[in-house]
Input
Amino acid sequence: MSYIHGYDPDTLREIVDPRQCAARVEEIGEQRSLPALLERVWLLKVLGRLDDALVISEQSVRVARMGGTRKDLLRARILHATVMQCRGSYDAAEQELTMCADEAEGQNWASVAAFAYQHRGKVRFDAGEFDDARSDFKRALFLRQESGAGDAQLESTLLAIDAADRRRVGASVAS
Output
């Protein structure tokens, strides 16, 4: 089941039903499997419970490091970086996402690299670096197309490119 009902065209944040997300957090409870931890991190993040999301994201990185695959670890690190982004730690989030994107591309894991680039683009978008954000979104689009991503992922990336273009034009008009 997808909890994402769309994306805000101005902030690129996920549009969710908070009651549905809160109910799912309760349903997951204290499960400690990596998939449950990652889902909880994301749900807590979109609910704005960033302190809780940070604690669980750090735990998910440790669990992935101890018992997951390298892809699992990258996904956990990317999610952790998105929590840092939401907390306003753009530099730390960008650095982590850059390392994740580089590793994923080095392993030819196009879908994981696209995930990292998409989120690095969002960090740069939030930081007002619209040209760099657009470059990351374009890279994510290419990688998603290469890996056969579904329409929803391609649409979210196209929306992000459009938002970065609008902000770039707005910023150049304002100067």
Summary: Helices lie at 18-28, 34-46, 50-67, 70-86, 90-106, 110-126, 130-146, 151-174. Strands lie at 4-7, 14-16. The chain has one domain: 4-174. The chain has a mean pLDDT of 95.
